Each structure stands twice: as C-alpha cells, then as structure tokens.
C-alpha cells in the first residue's frame, strides 16, 4: 500500500505524497512523547509512500524539528525522497514561553537558519509563515521569505491561516505554493472565500487537523474526554472538546461511523477520504505519533467515496452543525 502523489501550486509547483504526516504531536500538546515510537512512525510513513513531513520551530519548542531531522538522517531513504515543510512566526523561548507572532524580515532570516540547523538539511522544501503578523506588512515578510528562495535555503513558500486578502498581497510579491489551514468535515469556513481565492491563484491547500483533532477518528468519548494529562484538548483552548459541545459533536461522529461501517472502514478513514475527494490540489496532513494510527490513516488514500457517499456525509455532518469554535482565541486565524 503506497499513496499517490499530488501537486501543490501552479506557478511554483511542488510534488508531494497525497497524504502528509503532521509531526507536531510527537513532541508536544497531545500527551506524553515517545521519541523511539515517533521515529518508527516516520520511517513507517516512508514505507507506505507518505513522504511529506510537516513540522514547525514552535513545536516543542524546537525539539520537533530536531526529532524530524534525526528521523531523516537515520532513515533508509535519501533526502531527495522527502518533502520537508516547516514554519516560523509563532515565536517561543526555549522554556516554552510564547513571545507572540513575529513576521519581521530579520526574524524570518534568523528563524530559517535555526530551522535548517535543527533539521540538519541544506534546504527546506516548503517554508510557511505560521501565523500572519498584524504589525508587519505581509509584503515585507514575504519579501524576506523570497530572499530565502533566491539564496537556495528554501524551495517553496507557504502561508498558514491567512485571509484571502492577505494571500493575494503575498502572492503578488512571490508565488505562494501552498496555504496550510484547518479543513475537515468539522471545519469548512474556508469554502466561502479562501478556497476559491487560492484556486484562482493556483495555490495548493494543505489541511491540518483533517480529523478534527481526533474527534473524527471515533476514539474520543464523552466520558474519557480527549485524552490523559498533558493533552491540550482537555483545556478551554479547544471549545469543541468541552461539555455539551463535545456531546453534540460526538453525535455527528456517530453519523460518520454509520457510513464508515457500510464502507468497512473507520470513521477517520472516511473523514480523510472526504478531504481528499474535495480536489487534487488538496493534501491533508493528519498528525499521529503512533505507527498503528499512521497505517490506518494511510489506508484512507485508497478509499473511494461515491457521489452517494459524499452526499450522505454532507447530510451526516451539516456544515454548520459543529458546536464550538475551533480555538478559544480565534484572533490569529484567517488574518
């Protein structure tokens, strides 16, 4: 079982595996980390044809890039077989303190050099601005990112959680290859303006949290909540996981489960197949830190949904039926 490839971007196109691997949870936010299992997961991903790896300097902070770098160095595959994405802009200190969003040109350059060193590579395939800095014109930030392309340190540029207007301004400075933002059966607001805009401009979409931060896997219950201690989903930072909202959202998951059972699949596989079916310019990056969940996710690439299945999913999860914002603080998204 191997995934097929898809192309992100039209002006500056990047070929990647049709499913990527989000590595964030291997280091932080979603409970206890296990580096050996994480590296084994990355290596198993390559066995399955999942070669598009996603990290960021703020994950850890910093330690996730180091982990991904070690996994690449220890793998049986070559650097040219990896499509490596990382991000800057959510500035943190080594002790984890959050400084804020930083898009200043001098920070862009310093952050890139630090990421290259941690990853142990000469160039980053796709370099995202993780969040848009409202205090710095996007033209200045992307101008600095474009210099990184010219110098050979970065091959393609991306934005994350940017508004349609910001995307247009950024793309006018240098071709943007991909937009990373949240998109799933549970989060579809980008369909109004952002998705049409990036398609007009020839920019690919890289959905993070395509499984609704695990809700759509069907493994989360109202009694157990999100997970154990150390899992940020237990906090008010993620309103969809709290109290009555969680109960309502799990009812929607049950609807997906019923469709999945008819397909002899898991709810998560059906949810991923739905995202993949929204267009060949879309490459979701489900995150996991365990081999067994990686294998389950990768199998979704081979799951074909009929028009009837897609219509049934639309009825099962009406676009506006999910309860709760995706973040407790929405001030840094769609900027």
Automatic annotation (TrEMBL):
State whether keyword Oxidoreductase applies.
yes
Q: Where is the NADP-dependent oxidoreductase domain?
A: 19-316
Q: Which PROSITE patterns match?
A: PROKAR_LIPOPROTEIN
GO MF entry, a single one: oxidoreductase activity
An example Pfam family from this entry, by short name, is: Aldo_ket_red
Question: What GO cellular component term, any one, is given?
Answer: cytoplasm
Question: Which Gene3D superfamilies does the record associate with it?
Answer: NADP-dependent oxidoreductase domain
Q: Which UniProt keywords apply?
A: Oxidoreductase
**What protein does this entry describe?**
Aldo/keto reductase
What is the native source organism of this protein? Nocardioides silvaticus
